[in-house]
Amino acid sequence: MxxxxxxxxxxxxxxxxxxxxxxxAFGMLLATPTPAATNxxxxxxxxxxxxxxxxxxxxxxxxxxxxxxxxxxxxTNYDPSIHSVDPVYCxxxxxxxxxxxxxxxxxxxxxxxxxxxxxxxxxxxxxxxMSNGWDLNVPIPPAVSxxxxxxxxxxxxxxxxxxxxxxxxxxxxxxxxPMMGTFETS
Length: 186
Hints:
The protein has one helix spanning 7-31, and strands spanning 40-49, 56-59, 62-65, 70-77, 100-102, 113-115, 125-129, 136-140, 150-157, 162-167, 171-172, 175-176, 180-185. It is mainly β and 186 residues long. The N and C termini lie far apart (80 Å).
């Protein structure tokens, strides 16, 4: 038995094969991941009790990062206290995705969850930078104890070269927080 293919059948088979190859190649192009940005910088900031003064402080107080970098900021807080914070500073602002991730032990069941803010009675400190074009605010939950910290992570893109001040917007014993520092980009 001889099978005879018509020119139309052969043409349709070739067209279908070409279509499969083209669609498959296009699908592979769409599925190919793009390389991650290489200009990402991890910055660690700690809130701990100063053994001399007994007050809590950020360390380091000066952060040097490259201009235009994606910053992955990790804040480790050893202060178990809740401080009075204006409700506007209880919400996250200025991060790359509008949220913070609670990685530590301070929020208990919230560990590993993305959050847009904290309740007014659940803020220990803030990392707030509202100068020189910045609008960045991160409310920081309290530690479970002075030995068991909360760990909060956020990411944000730096601006061009320059410097800005950051501070904690909480009040301690009715007075403005002395916790502040400088954020320098070059």
